[in-house]
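re: ur question from earlier - yeah i can do the single chain one, its not a big deal. heres the input i used so u can compare w yours
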Amino acid sequence: MSTFNTFSEVIQTSITTDDFVKITLSKPLRKNDGLRNVYVRLVLIQEEVKMSFTYHYKTNDQVKNYGVAEGIEVLQEFLLTIFRTAVVFTLKEDLQVFVSKNKVVSYRNGAPSFTNKPPVSHDKPKERRADMGAYLRFLGVTDAENNVIPKMADKFRQINKYLEIMEGLISNAKLPKHIQIVDMGSGKGYLTFALYDYLVVQRKMDVTITGIELRQELVDYCNGVAEKCEFENLKFECKPIQEYSNKKIDILIALHACDTATDDAITKGIVAKAGLIVCAPCCHKQIRQSLKGKEQENPILRYGIFKERQYEMVTDTIRALILEKRHYQTKIFEFVSNEHTRKNVMLVATKSNKEIDEKALNKKIEGIKDAYGIDEHYLETQIH
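and the output i got, formated as tokens:
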């Protein structure tokens, strides 16, 4: 049986020569145990280098720190009992480790995936990160020990996916130095708080966020949490979307604003010439209700469930085309997996200076409307 000598030597040498990037363990032997993978990085705790293990379970993440020698022993034990593969990432090479059913260890060397290594974190920044995440405790996502509450695991994944998406969208949009974000239909504010924390606290960006919400109790609750977290430039207002009058909007967000409230929000973004409009449309009742009683030739529309899905696609496609007429580049994609929610489509529009063919866009919109017998789309009535 092969040994882990090569595995241990590469880790120790890369740490000594300051080339270590990270280690990943994957392909668990028993998926029903809940441990999906393990990531290992270096941290500096009380002036001593430690190996920090992040255990990614189905419902939460757990972190444990070990000395280097002990950490290598833990890694070897994991490869013998829990995982089949590991990758040691260094600046010189990637070392893949494979363990067979008979416990035979084999290796494959590859070109390095990273040209820069992450900084070795001190323990004080770790405490600061916990402080920055206090909003998660106030909103009931994590407990007093900063562990994700199992029933909130899907919400936590959604938050992280949202931040990943927003990071890319913001970096590619043309935005001013001070960014005014308006979140219309902010609800309990999970994603609103997460975005503020990420942009302002972590990335030190000059950002103001305003949440618009109809339910006064949620507005009061969110303003209270913002105050506790000392999020000075995060405010929530109780009013209908139509009554929001501030014309200074750089990023317009409307996640799950019901039915035509999505169109009202898009209208505010277009009028303000927002650099970025991000929507996760919900309900899609307007077109479906306007076509009640009209006989459709398309056989797909004979079935209620297909009719509902078809009208959702039609509604959002027309929204995208109208945005393109207003000099936005659009894309529609899945936000989160269908297993978590049916409300999983995200419509994104980024302001563009490219020339448009308005006649061709009008033809596309009219073609869709003619095909389904649609008289008008609500968004058309709001944009003049």
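The chain has two domains: 5-126, 132-382. not sure if urs matches, ping me
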